[in-house]
Write a structure and sequence with these properties.
By secondary structure, this protein is an all-alpha fold. 76% of the residues lie in helices and 0% in strands. Helix 1 packs parallel to helix 8, helix 3 packs across helix 16 (368-402) and helix 9 packs parallel to helix 16.
């Protein structure tokens, strides 16, 4: 596929501008040192705008999505198998990342940054679960510190709206309209990201020192190395499960255009047309392709799964805390599943997942730019895994719903 320089800048414009802001902030931080603290309020303004918008954004995005699901699409073996495959591959990629981080641990004990950590009161597992999943007053749902409980509440409102039938139609339209309004608000706020994050990065470098570069470099090395391994080895393995050696051959033969489309557009949604053409050539039946590909774009994100674990591990390392802990890992896997489904339908949705990470682990606000910057740097590779994972998942769904010899039958009848 041919893309002009104009197309390239259009697709990567936000990333390029954000990198310019980060690089400018880095230079200022190195040159001015602690004098750069004067720029911190600029970063605070950006983060405060983001925090105030995220709560209504998540409510409308989740509630409207659930309320507008066609009930006929929720039934049947195909839907059950499809969501099982989506969640299964997301978990596999997340577990692999946990193993990679444990084998190649990120540098820890950056004392200056660790000093900003908030002390947590010891709680039992049950108390922690109750405080994360529920609140005892409605107004507490509106705090970003109760985000997980708020996400659950949003799901329930969506289901209740869906069950309300015609009586609930006006409220469903309100949710749909609110969803679009809040998406546009987030787009407006994110236009300030290069300045806001650039100022915050200058503050981090100037105050905490350039030792942060070691964490970023190590994170990128793990992410891109593991992602390339996952892309080649595990996608081949998934294709083998779906159709044996012929499945591997037909997958890679028809995955070239979707791969370049994902890298060129940096968008899973923009890759949907290429993916639909690819799965047709892979002999996936239309009734599966027409569900797995459009729904996979927002709901199935192996690349985001890997980046979610990397981000969490990076913040733990910067703050000198142990990431390889059973409770921490279980929570990280749960966050990863939520992030990989919630962020898909929201512009710059990865930032929503990053705020969720801050909330669940009670990290200080100063750590948010760290995960946002990592998310920006891994975005192209993450999109590649997110988009191309949809086609191989469609093949696996076909294998589990149409039988072991589905590909052989499809080739013979072609």
């Amino acid at each position: 596929m041919n893309f002009s320089r104009t197309d390239f800048f259009k697709n990567y414009r936000s990333i390029i501008l954000l990198l310019i802001g980060i690089i400018s902030g880095t230079i200022l931080g190195l040159l001015l040192g602690k004098q750069v603290e004067v720029l911190k309020p600029i970063g605070d303004i950006f983060l405060n705008l983001l925090f105030t918008a995220v709560i209504p954004l998540i409510f409308f995005a989740i509630a409207s999505s659930i309320a507008n699901i066609d009930k006929t699409k929720k039934m049947g073996k195909v839907m059950l198998v499809m969501f099982s495959v989506f969640v299964g591959t997301v978990l596999i990629s997340a577990i692999l990342t946990v193993l990679a981080v444990s084998m190649f641990p990120l540098p820890q004990n950056i004392e200056t940054v660790a000093e900003i950590a908030e002390e947590l009161k010891p709680q039992s597992f049950g108390e922690q679960a109750a405080s994360l999943l529920t609140v005892n007053e409605f107004y507490e749902l509106l705090s970003r510190k109760s985000m997980l409980a708020f996400i659950i509440f949003s799901f329930l409102v969506g289901f209740a709206t869906s069950r309300s039938g015609e009586t609930g139609e006006p409220f469903k339209k309100f949710l749909t309209g609110g969803d679009e309004v809040m998406k546009q608000l987030l787009i407006l706020i994110m236009k300030l990201a290069p300045i806001g994050l650039g100022a915050y990065f200058a503050y981090q470098i100037g105050v905490f020192g350039p030792q942060l570069f070691g964490t970023y470099a190590h994170s990128m090395a793990i992410y891109y190395g593991l992602s390339l391994f996952y892309f080649i080895v595990f996608f081949s393995f998934y294709a083998f499960i779906a159709g044996g050696i012929p499945g591997v051959n037909i997958y890679w033969k028809n995955n070239i255009i979707p791969s370049f489309t994902a890298l060129s557009t940096c968008s899973s949604v923009a890759t949907i047309p290429a993916n639909l053409a690819a799965v047709k050539a892979m002999k996936v039946p239309d009734h599966i392709a027409n569900l797995a590909i459009p729904l996979g774009a927002p709901l199935h994100k192996d690349g985001s799964s890997i980046s979610s674990i990397i981000k969490i591990a990076a913040v733990f390392a910067i703050m000198g805390r142990d990431f390889i802990d059973p409770y921490t890992i279980v929570m990280a896997l749960g966050i990863t599943i939520i992030v990989s489904t919630v962020e898909g339908g929201i512009p710059n949705g990865g930032y929503i997942g990053e705020i969720l990470v801050m909330t669940v682990y009670n990290f200080p606000i100063e750590m948010l730019p760290v995960v946002m910057i990592i998310g920006t740097l891994v975005d192209p590779m993450a999109t590649l895994l997110n988009a191309c994972g949809d086609t191989v998942s469609a093949m696996m769904v076909t294998r589990f719903t149409e039988g072991r010899n589905w590909l052989k039958k499809a080739v013979l009848t072609a």
